């Protein structure tokens, strides 16, 4: 007999954990992923198939690959789940997703923008060249090797500011915390607008 105790996650617990996420689309994706992994019984077709399809469509939106068709599909799936699911769990899942459908945030994601600027697919961390003092604090803080540059030496000149390699950056925010000069900013990729301004 195994010493491991398996605790079944309840829908209420999933909702509580999902509410911690800032972006409603990320909340919905988290909720549906956890629902599929735990409390979904798989006995009724609208809930079972709808949940899997909704997860795929929500992933598209969060990852920046979503389109208007994904939003329409999620709306249809949630409506069908609310009407046809046999149990309260499926209906609660549909209600959780539908709660945010009227806010326009799903459509914004289909337009390649996260209104809360939390989905990593829609933002970039950048170093402002004229603010960078080439101290190397950001490079030391980055665990992912995403920052290029060489620390300034007092007897040499001609150094370029540090640069963030976008493909390696996981947007953890450690570089921003480490920079004593405020030289690292977050920019919305679609508009090039500074986040938080």
Set out the fold topology.
Elements: H1 11-18, H2 24-37, H3 45-62, H4 68-84, H5 88-101, H6 105-110, E1 123-127, H7 137-141, E2 147-148, E3 163-164, H8 174-178, E4 184-188, E5 193-194
Antiparallel strand pairs: 1-4, 2-3, 4-5
Please tell me about this protein's structure:
44% of the residues lie in helices and 8% in strands. The chain has 197 residues and is mostly helical. The chain folds into two domains: 11-110, NADH-ubiquinone oxidoreductase 51kDa subunit, iron-sulphur binding domain (de novo design (two linked rop proteins), Up-down Bundle); 120-194, Alpha-Beta Plaits, CATH 3.30.70.20. A hairpin with a 4-residue loop joins β4 and β5. Mean pLDDT is 87; it is low at 1-7.
Query: How many strand segments?
Result: 5
The CATH homology group name of the largest domain? NADH-ubiquinone oxidoreductase 51kDa subunit, iron-sulphur binding domain
- Which CATH C-level class of the largest domain is it? Mainly Alpha
Largest beta-sheet characterization:
3 strands, antiparallel
Class of secondary structure makeup: mainly alpha
Number of domains: 2
CATH topology-level fold name of the largest domain: de novo design (two linked rop proteins)
Q: Radius of gyration in whole Å, from Cα?
A: 21 Å
Which architecture of the largest domain per CATH? Up-down Bundle
Order of helices and strands: HHHHHHEHEEHEE
With helices defined by DSSP (H or I, 4 residues minimum), what is the helix count?
Answer: 8
Q: What value does the average pLDDT take?
A: 87
Shape: elongated
Strand order of the largest sheet: 1-4-5
- What portion of the residues fall into strands of 2 or more residues? 5-15%
The unreliable regions are 1-7
């Amino acid at each position: 007999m195994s010493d491991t105790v398996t605790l079944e996650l309840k829908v209420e617990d999933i909702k509580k954990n999902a509410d911690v996420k800032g972006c409603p689309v990320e909340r919905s994706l988290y909720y549906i992923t956890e629902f599929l992994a735990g409390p979904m019984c798989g006995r009724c077709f609208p809930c079972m198939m709808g949940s899997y399809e909704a997860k795929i469509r929500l992933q598209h939106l969060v990852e920046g690959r979503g389109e208007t068709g994904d939003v329409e599909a999620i709306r249809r799936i949630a409506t069908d789940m609310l009407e046809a699911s046999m149990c309260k769990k499926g209906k609660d899942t549909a209600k959780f997703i539908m709660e945010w459908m009227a806010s326009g945030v799903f459509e914004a994601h289909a337009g390649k923008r996260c209104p809360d600027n939390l989905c990593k697919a829609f933002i970039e961390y950048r170093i402002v060249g004229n603010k960078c003092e080439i101290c190397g604090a950001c490079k030391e803080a980055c665990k992912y090797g995403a920052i290029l540059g060489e620390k300034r030496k007092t007897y040499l000149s001609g150094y370029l500011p540090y640069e963030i390699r976008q493909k390696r950056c996981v947007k953890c925010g450690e570089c921003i915390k480490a920079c004593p000069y405020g030289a690292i900013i977050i920019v919305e990729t679609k508009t090039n607008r500074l986040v938080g301004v």
